[in-house]
Amino acid sequence: MDAAEYDLIVIGAGPVGENVADRAVQGGLSVAIVESELVGGECSYWACMPSKTLLRAGAALAAAVDAPGALPAASGPRRVDVAAVLRRRDEIVHEWNDAGQVQWLQDAGIELVRGHGRLTGEREVTVARDGADAARLRARYAVAVCTGSAALLPDIPGLADARPWTSREATAVQQMPESLVILGGGVVACEMATAYASFGVAVTVLARSALLHGVEPFAGEFVTDSLRAAGVDVRTDAQVTAVVREDDGRVRVDLSEGESVTASEILVATGRVPRTGDLGLEAVGLEPGAWLDVDDTLRVRGSAWLYGVGDVTHRALLTHQGKYQARAAGDVIAVRAHGGEVDDAPWGAHVATADHDAVPQVVFTAPEVAAVGLTAAQAEERGIRVRALDVDLAQIAGASTRAAHYRGQARAVVDEDRGVLVGATFVGEDAGEMLHAATIAVVGEVPLHRLWHAVPAYPTLSEVWLRWLEAYGRESAVST
User: For binding NAD(+), which residues are annotated in this chain's numbering (predicted)?
Assistant: First the structure.
């Protein structure tokens, strides 16, 4: 079997792999990308894009209901048109057809190899192809693993046999169930509970702890209250002991307290695992199924040629962070291939520094949750002398003009010794649109005294920045 040779071989053609490949091509390298499913990956077909489409109609309707005059008084039942939402979802995912993405690869000068790629030696990838002989690919300089992550299936008796949904089935749904029980309290669980409740599905959420653990506690409390107001049965501190798919097709979930919950379907949203189990890692001395331990240039530690980019690194399981990593990785692979100088200092061109302290994330619940950087608790754990500044967003003029019953909160986390922002969290309608300003402030380490000169427009929600500064100034005066 002859081997085709390229400068770089990328395994996985999701957004991360596409960006690694594109940056490397722009850097003058020849690149092959290997994909066993759809080009465009999880985000395009089963995650970010379809999930946000499923959520949009409910959010728009809720906003209209809370804006007096937006809906006629005699407008009839105020319900989401589920069929229309699913049609729009199908348009967004292009009916799960990747022809457009394949054309993009061709236009970018990236060669696509269809099939399942496995490492079979140093700088060597063998691709199993349906109906054809395997293809052996050789990399002159590097191989980048960009295979992403998959839903974790917890070891609960009967769960695997109950044919549970994961996020893939939830976002690709064709026929709405009457009821849905969701295991988990993280982003996927909260977003899908929000979407399915807007579709009129009876939803139960079973979480082992408070919702949205890992962000500021008040964010999870807002989302919990909102879900319950929408009719969702949210149960925290829930311990599932067994799952059974009954003869009538319904699912029964047994709890440690002796109670049971039944539903038409069950969605498991309890975490993610790396898609590295059948990747041939053992052929290069690594543990199959493990997360890849990489340095800040995304090169696997101990290797001179193997890179891990995106979810497989377990650094920040978010599409935008994966693409950020991909830009750094593609550029540094090209620079190293040409013998150039690597800029691997913190915040350098070839590193993913923001993965550590400045990761932005939006949870598209109702209300939205948007956060960047450290929570107050995380900052304190790092030994930072912290001041948390809290503002009720409902008291901002821009909120009163948007909705009759706006609810929200914003927290800034200040490093007192340096006088800079190290974290920010916003909860409220369209909170995600306020996030990037905070991301810039955190990444740029903009001094708070300088932010007094960044004047927010009136009346907008961005006036929260002025309220933060006023609170900081007043509290500083009191403390001195």
Answer: 184-191, 271
Spatial separation of the C-alpha atoms in residues 215 and 192, rounded to whole Å: 18
**Most distant CA pair in the chain, distance:** 76
DSSP string, 310-361: GGGG-S---HHHHHHHHHHHHHHHHHHHTT-----STT-TT--THHHH--EE
DSSP 294: B
Amino acid 477: pLDDT? 41
* Cα–Cα nearest to 36, from 231, 210, 255, 279: 279
Q: Are 84 and 116 in contact (CB under 8 A)?
A: no
For domain 3-45+93-150+274-354, give the CATH number. Answer: 3.50.50.60
d(CA 463, CA 451): 12
**In 242-264, which positions are buried (b, 16+ CB within 10 angstroms) versus exposed (e)?**
ebbbeeeebbbbbeeeeeebebb
CA–CA gap between residue 279 and residue 135 (Å, rounded):
15
How far is residue 370 from each of residues 59, 67, 230, 361, measured CA to CA in Å?
A: 15, 22, 21, 6
Q: How far apart are CA 15 and CA 181, in angstroms?
A: 30
Q: Topology of domain 153-270, per CATH?
A: FAD/NAD(P)-binding domain (3.50.50)
- Which residue positions form the known binding site? 52, 117, 147-149, 184-191, 271, 311
Distance CA 432, CA 361 (A): 8
Residue 125's CB is within 10 A of a number of other CB atoms, namely 26
CATH topology of domain 367-479: Enolase-like; domain 1 (3.30.390)
Tokens of 80: 């989401």
Binding residues for NAD(+): 184-191, 271
Is-cis flag, bond preceding 459, omega within 30?
A: yes
**CATH 3.50.50.60 occupies which residues in the chain?**
3-45+93-150+274-354, 153-270
Query: For the residues of 15-35, what is the DSSP string, one character each?
Result: HHHHHHHHHHHHTT--EEEEE
> Any idea which residue has 């002989």 for tokens?
133
Pick the more confident residue, 255 or 477. Answer: 255
pLDDT tens digit sequence for 276-330: 999 999 999 999 999 999 999 999 999 999 999 999 999 999 999 999 999 999 9
- Residue 238 pLDDT greater than 60, yes or no: yes
User: Taken in order 220, 224, 227, 233, is the CA torsion positive or negative?
Assistant: positive
Domain(s) of CATH 3.30.390.30: residues in the chain: 367-479
Name the residue type at position 54: L
d(CA 205, CA 190): 8
Enter the DSSP assignment of 165: B
Amino acid at 273: V
Known binding site for FAD: residues? 52, 117, 147-149, 311
pLDDT at residue 476 in the model: 57
Average pLDDT over residues 111-124: 97
